[in-house]
Design a protein that fits this description.
By secondary structure, the chain is of the alpha/beta class. Helices cover 44% and strands 14% of the residues. α3 links the parallel β4 and β5.
Length: 532
């Protein structure tokens, strides 16, 4: 069967478009001799049908991946495509199909199937059943139409042996001529955390172990293949938690690091940690990970006090968060980025003050977005159920809304919402976050490469300059935020926005100027600037 898999660009897929789940689906379908086309459609192109409708004329089955962010655009596309090709099958997979599959088909008559949970085997069996004109009742993990009825079949067990899957295809990478910041790579599925806002596992009904990991050899076989095929060296490990499950998990990632080093693969990579899993006892493992190319970790700190962590159902404590921060300070090549929820339906003024103090005191408060981030509530999460019980949702969930709208247990914090949203509307707030990571990458890759060269003194001087700037920015952010929340009634929002915007732009320009000077010196002395 000819199958088109469509990626609608939105949310995290705007800055980097690669969807590794689609890559797995296409690889699995192609393994069984189905023809697959992967097509990206931007939100602004949906109304320009001539850009994509002709490309779909030969495809009998069209699949979409869905998230809360992209759902509205998916349904727009479904209407348009079904209007042109009424005999094509249309299926949705991903987050919304997994948690709201039956509701999708009830609300949108032009969607024929929802594929719930891991889609590789389910999608293949659905296509095979349609080709053979077999009954669909035996295809686990689908929602489908039977006459006027909508049938939800039994869930499919989770895939236990991930090594049996083919490596994901890289159609999107090739469509962009390899001009990505990184290639996404999945070394495991599932998570042993139970965060109240996360749908990584909560709400799923598939049988099987919650967490499964690929073997170190299988993971590094894929990396080596990608390095040799594309000469590409930066990877984003998209696992919910890289080090799960416990001791065995750390042995697994130690094996991955050793394989990378033993094969002399000159790569860099990012991954996600959970704070409760790390301490000074892991020093040797962390050094090994850094030696193998680890340069950024994402940790879900989420709150600066115990009350907030409990509400968000975090297993980590405030002490865990601080211990992990202090442990990672010994590894300056690692950039720490993190999840943080400043405001949620149960927030108090004291919570907000505690959160702000935590952000500042960690020494990582230079990214001001964290000060304004608000909880996003998605279907299938523990917090969804809690908010329903506490009558804090504004209305019944509407699939088109993307996420729940909610109100606050403490009305005094409601006034923060429009102001936080105004600050997040500044492009500079988002640009600085990326800029800060890129500057760290620029510095640490140079330090790794030229640690024993005469130019290292100049690199370290620039690093010291950037550190001083980060402290200045972090101090400004804390003072700015506290001024906002303390003088809310008399706050001139437009003035404060301009103040923040000008400050961030000026600081970025100053750092760029010094970076340019260092670059000139490196080039004059014959040093390579493009550290891949």
């Amino acid at each position: 069967m000819n199958i088109a898999l469509i990626v609608t660009l939105g949310g995290d897929l705007v800055r980097s478009t690669e969807h590794v789940g689609i890559g797995y689906l296409s690889a699995y379908l192609r393994k069984y001799n189905h023809s697959v086309k992967v097509l990206e459609i931007k939100e602004q192109d949906i109304s320009h049908e001539s850009k994509y409708i002709p490309m779909l004329c030969d495809y009998e089955f069209i699949g979409f991946t869905t998230t809360c962010v992209t759902m509205k655009n998916v349904t727009r596309l479904v209407d348009i495509i079904k209007g042109h090709y009424p005999n094509s099958y249309i299926a949705c997979g991903g987050h919304m199909a997994t948690f709201s599959g039956k509701e999708l088909l009830e609300k949108y008559s032009k969607i024929d199937f929802a594929i719930q949970g891991e889609g590789e085997i389910t999608f293949l069996e659905l296509v095979q059943a349609l080709e053979a004109k077999k009954e669909l009742s035996d295809v686990l993990g689908i929602v489908y139409r039977s006459g006027s009825k909508i049938i939800e079949n039994q869930s499919r067990p989770l895939i236990d042996d991930l090594d049996m899957l083919p490596f994901p295809d890289r159609d999107q990478f090739e469509q962009h001529d390899g001009k990505f910041q990184y290639i996404r790579l999945s070394t495991s599925r599932g998570c042993l955390g139970h965060c109240g806002f996360c749908s990584s596992f909560a709400g799923r009904h598939q049988k099987g172990p919650r967490w499964r990991g690929r073997s170190p050899k299988n993971v590094v076989d894929e990396i080596e293949m990608l390095v040799k095929k594309y000469d590409f060296h930066t990877y984003d490990f998209v696992d919910s938690t890289f080090e799960d499950p416990g001791y065995k998990g750390k042995m697994r990632i130690e094996g991955i690091a050793k394989e990378i080093i033993n094969r002399k693969l000159d790569i860099f990579y990012n991954c996600c940690f959970r704070a409760e899993n790390w301490s000074e006892k892991d020093h040797d493992l962390l050094k090994l990970l850094v030696d193998s190319g680890l340069e950024k970790v994402n940790i879900g700190f989420e709150s600066g006090n115990a009350r907030g962590l409990k509400i968000l159902n975090k297993r980590a404590t405030v002490e865990d968060n601080w211990r992990t921060i202090e442990t990672l300070r010994h590894f300056p090549f690692i950039y720490i980025t993190f999840g943080f929820i400043m405001l949620h339906p149960y927030s108090t003024l004291q919570d907000i003050r505690d959160n702000a103090k935590f952000l500042h005191d960690t020494g990582m408060g230079q990214v001001i977005r964290h000060y304004f981030w608000m909880l996003e509530v998605y279907p299938g999460t523990l917090l969804e159920e809690q908010l329903k019980r506490d009558n804090l949702l504004d209305k019944q969930y509407d699939i088109d809304d993307g996420m729940y709208k909610y109100h606050f247990q403490n009305p005094e914090v409601c006034a923060f919402v429009p102001i936080f949203q105004e600050m997040l509307s500044l492009t500079s707030v988002w640009d600085f976050e990326i800029f800060d990571i890129l500057i760290h990458t620029f510095i640490t890759r140079l330090q790794r490469k030229y640690w024993d060269s005469p130019i290292i003194d100049d690199i370290n001087l620039f690093h010291d300059f950037v550190r001083s700037k980060r402290k200045k920015i972090a101090d400004f952010n804390y003072t700015f935020f506290m001024e906002l929340i303390t003088n809310l009634e008399h706050c001139d929002v437009a003035f404060m926005k301009t103040k923040l915007d000008s400050f961030l732009l000026d600081e970025m320009d100053t750092i760029k100027s010094e970076q340019y000077k260092l670059g000139l010196k490196l080039r004059r002395h014959g040093y390579q600037m493009n550290i891949r």
